[in-house]
Amino acid sequence: MFRSAARPDDKDARGPQDRARIALGEDYEVDYWTGKFGVSKETLEAAVKAVGNGADAVEQHLKG
């Protein structure tokens, strides 16, 4: 079946609504970011706690 572009309220969407921010309160976003960065949920949470929820800052933090 062909899927059209996801609606803004479509929780089945695989990526986050705002790719610049990490929303730890949404399971689908946690799944996306842990997969993108190759880290556990706990590691992602610790990185967000350390540098805030900006995706670029978290990525740099995780790279060391």
Automatic annotation (TrEMBL):
Keywords: Plasmid
InterPro entries from the UniProt entry: DUF3606
Top-level taxon of the source organism: Bacteria
UniProt-annotated stretches for the region Disordered: 1-20
Protein name: DUF3606 domain-containing protein
Organism this protein belongs to: Sphingobium yanoikuyae (Sphingomonas yanoikuyae)
